[in-house]
Amino acid sequence: MSKQKAVSETPPSPVYIFRGHVEQINSLEFIENNRYLISGDAGGNVIIWDMISRRSKIQFKAHNDGILSIVKFKDKLISHGRDNTLHVWAFGQLSNAKDESIKEESIKSEISLTDMNFGKDSVLIQVFYVEINDKRDELFIAVPSAKGSSGIDIWNLTNQKLIVSSIGLDQNRKTGYCMAIKIFPNNNFQNIQSVTKNYLILAAYENGSVSLWSITININDSVSNEDNVVVEKLWDRKEHGESVLSIDLSPNKQFAMSTSGDNKIVKYNFDEGFREEPLIQSTTVKYAGVAEVKIRSDGKIFATAGWDTMCVIAVIFYKTIYNELWVSNFQLIIQNFLRKRIRVFSSKSLKPLAILSYHRESVYALAFSCILPLDEQDHDKSIEEEKDLGSEERIEKHYLVGGGKDQRISLWEIY
């Protein structure tokens, strides 16, 4: 499929199916120039898959409850669980492990954050680094606030201190829970003295709204208290009639996508300075409940996943029209219409391009492989680390993976 058509006439098939989880899959992430795939499930288990051999490289239990998210950030692997803890792992320990049966006790988290008083509803986190000077940077996270789930707290993981709390906290409870967060540096921010850094937080809420917040951090002093942080709300848009379930940001930071419990997909086109309200594009799909949206690294396409509810209507229609074939084709019809779709769209026009049908239960996690120009790839690793990770074997294919309730991960190659 070299050209983007309206909807693919020939339904594609998955390239491969990863089997290894025994619980619902909640998180997927490609890492190390797509050399590995990380998956996390509802039982707290993590599997790191080798994308060349397509086998499990290592499995370990990261949490006592379900994995909410697991990401790699620089040399750290960060996992967040429903057990209300966040673990920061030294990734080298995992990547150098060769034995699939390696004992859990041999993998120790570098930092185990159990005393940071995350709210019980802090189900989504965003990780970012603040560069203090040429020799030092500090690791931060943004999470739903412990004081109220409509607010956002920012923590410094380096010293485990709260930097700013309750960003956007709504005492009147009109916005409801903060459902999703994306944080990114504002590269257009100008500061002559270079003592402040500006970050933008895109936050989605239970009432269907999306807001953009500006966070300016003074790095001249130790980044350890709210006096060094200035918070400003730039804009707010309510485009959904139901809770926003997922948001994603394009790699070039020019637009974002949101999906919700309704059947609407919304695109937010940012201005250069991010301060004006975004230009809105939207489209609708036939069935409500779009739980996940992901934008590919080139920004040209995006994918959504959730659940479809067309089985009963379709079977009744089929039985009415083709009653004589009912018995012999009943199983085929059920299998066909029970499959949960991953849908692929054009980012520019929002037109549907393909429907990927494999999963028979709801899909909760998606991930695209990241294809970057050579000058943007990670060149910070030592020669020894590069050799250990096998990162010289970069995978330059446009892969998409999906996983969910059926405990399987489907691998697709499209466009």
From TrEMBL:
WD repeats: 18-59
Secretion signal, residue range per the UniProt entry: none
UniProt keyword Glycoprotein present: no
Domain of life: Eukaryota
Gene3D superfamilies hit by this protein: YVTN repeat-like/Quinoprotein amine dehydrogenase
InterPro entries associated with the record: WD40/YVTN_repeat-like_dom_sf, WD40_repeat_CS, WD40_repeat_dom_sf, WD40_rpt
Pfam family, one: WD40
Keywords: Repeat, WD repeat
UniProt family annotation: Belongs to the WD repeat ASA1 family.
Name of the protein this chain belongs to: ASTRA-associated protein 1
Organismal lineage: Eukaryota, Fungi, Fungi incertae sedis, Mucoromycota, Glomeromycotina
